[in-house]
Amino acid sequence: NGGEIIARDPMGMKKLAYPIEKNARGYFYVIYYKIAPSAISEIERRFRINEEILRFVTMKYDTKREIKAWNDMVEKTKKVAPAAVVAEKTEEVAS
Predict the structure, then answer these.
(1) How many domains does the chain have?
(2) H or E element, residue 14
(3) Residue 44: which residues within 8 A CB-CB, separation 6 or more?
């Protein structure tokens, strides 16, 4: 769809505030991406038909303040992500 994934933030398994489809826990994941506004409906359609996705939220950043906050979150995620991958690989080797 011509979009680009900017950063990913796997937040891990967490307890849900309330059960969703008999699930008390779920894996939380944040994906920062840029895409043409016309393609958002297609992305959301794919999320809805994917049975592994219980809930999703799409947020649009418009103002300069929101865009700066988005850029800050992306940079923070990019700095944390490599350390998380190293930790996961270390755990696999230790097992």
Answers:
(1) 1
(2) strand 4-20
(3) 56, 58
Q: What sections of the chain are H helices per DSSP?
A: 40-49, 64-94
Query: pLDDT tens digits, residue range 24-78?
Result: 999 998 888 888 888 999 999 999 999 999 999 998 877 888 888 878 888 887 7
DSSP three-state, residue 61: coil
The domain in which residue 33 lies consists of 4-94
pTM of the shown model: 0.62
User: Nearest Cα to 7, choosing from 89, 73, 93, 59?
Assistant: 73
Which CATH number belongs to the domain containing residue 13 in this structure?
3.30.70.60
For residues 3 and 39, is the Cβ–Cβ distance under 8 A?
Answer: yes
